[in-house]
Predict the 3D structure of the following.
Amino acid sequence: MGFAHDELLGPLRDNGFVVLRGAVQSERCDAVVEALVDVLGISLDDPSTWDRISPSLDMVPMWGHQSQWEIRQLPNLYEAWSTIWDRSDLWVDVNSCRVTPPWSPSRADALPIHFDVDPHDVAQQWYPGLVALTDAPADHGGFRGVPSLFRDRHRWPTTWPVAGELQPALCDDDEIVEVQLSKGDVLIWDSHLPHGTVRNNGPSPRAVFYVQMHPPGGPADLEERLADVEAGRAPPWVRWKVGHDRIDRHDIELSALGQRLLGVEPWDR
Ligand SMILES: O=C(O)CCC(=O)C(=O)O
């Protein structure tokens, strides 16, 4: 699938996010779900198993499975991010998944509206993404963002009582836009978009897989990244999360593109 340049960059520039409908085949999403229900010891269809997902572990500590690499190395996703960055040499991040069951007081709640990085720091420009592994219609735990605040840098906070988190007074409820996704849709957002999730009031868990491509790091970053993948360790920037000190090591097979996106093969050869 190719993406029209303006259809990709227009919404990202104007609203701070873009949705690539049906960018990942359903079977590829199912393969990731199969692996993650195994790691969590749950069934998406069996509510009696959902409380095995702790509120803080609605992030699934799984980053090394072949099914995840099959998505990370998809040529159409690479095409989207290389259009966004306007360059061909990119790395893909080695991130994990989130599974959020229908809300109850003992389960994970909505993620408050936050910035992932300080939006005033010009060095911090990123384009994180997520793959919807399940359908997320309205009110089902899905993504929400505040495009009007993304566009209005004069209203960006300069103090952070809770790191990254937006004080509710800084935006009106009617500025918040919920994005409904179907399985296989990919949402990419600009790191200057304040965003979070809605509470899952639906009948079933919402599952996503986080994917992001970005310009390559230097030789020390490469050495660390390859050593982590080889050992099955989570990358350092997620290792602090609950359960992310586990080893998730698999013998992975990568395409020629996947090898470049990981960094085993350099882009200039
Ligand atoms: O899962 C989502 O929709 C958003 C996750 C999020 O807010 C984040 O990764 O910072």
